[in-house]
What we know:
Blueprint: H1 2-16, H2 22-33, H3 36-57, H4 61-66, H5 68-91, H6 104-119, H7 124-135, H8 144-171, H9 173-179, H10 185-205
Amino acid sequence: MDFALFLLVVLVSFVGSIQIGAVSLAVIQTTLNRSRSAGVWVALGGSIPEFIFSFIALKGLLFLQQNQMIIDWLNLLIIPIFLLLGLYNFFQKEGNGDEEAVIETSKNFDFAKGFSLGMLNPQLLPFWFFSLVYISKYFSINTLSAKYAFVLGTGVGAFGILVVFAQLTHLYHLRIRKILKNYSINRLMAFVFISLALIQAIKFFI
């Protein structure tokens, strides 16, 4: 039963993470500019917050209601983060995507970048709370093993789809670069991040 729960949560996390967001964009860009292994490190870092927020979701609705300020701050904090990422990408030099040897400091940086972007995702906590409410209709998540299965499945599913993004970007990077040959990949990413910042600001202040 716990294994079935684990597989279901993996599927929910996998499908829920398909939508393009800050972490998936960072994975794609890092893979294009650096290497597949660098993109996987971003993916690994970006998956860890899934464990954290799904564990918090297990605390229940009371925690969510009493800590609405946390979600509000995350919604606000992500705006300057997206803007800074946009400016960083705008001025960043293009890479060739041929680097396979990644030094230890780069791995730490890539991991930290994915982790930071994942932690600043204000949608994760509500997503896993409401997913938990729905899944609880069909599975009992009262035992410790069931809770472990739930939390573990969230991160595994997210990591899986992010690795798929890295793999597909690596396989088709020549075709992607050919399509975007008249455009700067970093400038396009800068435009996307700045657009996300504007959308987030509109949602927060309006």
